[in-house]
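QA checklist item 7 of 12: single-chain prediction sanity check.
[x] sequence parsed
[x] length recorded as 223
[x] structure emitted
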Amino acid sequence: MTIRAILWDLDGTLADTTALHYQAWRMTMQRYGVDLTYESFIKDYGRNNAEILAEHFGIHAVATIQQVADEKESAFRSLITPGVLQPLPGALAWLHCFRSLGMIQVIGSSGPMANIAAVVHALGVGDFFFGLVSGVHLPEGKPEPTIFLRCAALAGAAPDECLVIEDSLHGIEAAMRAGMTSVAVGRIAAQPALQDLIQKNPGLRCIVTPSLASIDDPKSILT
């Protein structure tokens, strides 16, 4: 099936927001007596806040979970100051390439819509996208495939007509469970867990690259 829609993750894929997210998580969780390590943060990267916080405060602490999540995201947005974010290497070239091909491009991020809008505005890339989809209000986040299936529906494309660009294991697994082709970019390219995931899903194509800039012609991955 021909690829018609490009589904982008946001954090760590279009822009390197990892340090800002960790800073926001750490300062927020410290107010609640939790010393969040970087290793713990990275392990959960790509999941939605409610699932992460339920493991710290219990699944029944709904009000606390919502309050902490809101505080964390507010802290994150406060860190997006002018010039602090730039598109990751290769991202703009890929956006331009897919737009020139008439591809429908959609962002599917686990973060709240206010974060997505703030980052997209800071990067100046809003005009590339047909739509923005937040996973905050979904009952389950990545690796559940729901967010990417919603992105596909928004784009008017079947799952096998979609290419997902992701930087987290949770995101790649979500793409695979949705039946979509994927690009695994960034730190996960060197992780053995990614190869294990690929081997368990031999019928689904996953292109692995340490950087989008490492692939000179993005059109080459569409066939």
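[x] summary fact logged: The first helix runs from residue 18 to 30.
[ ] second reviewer sign-off
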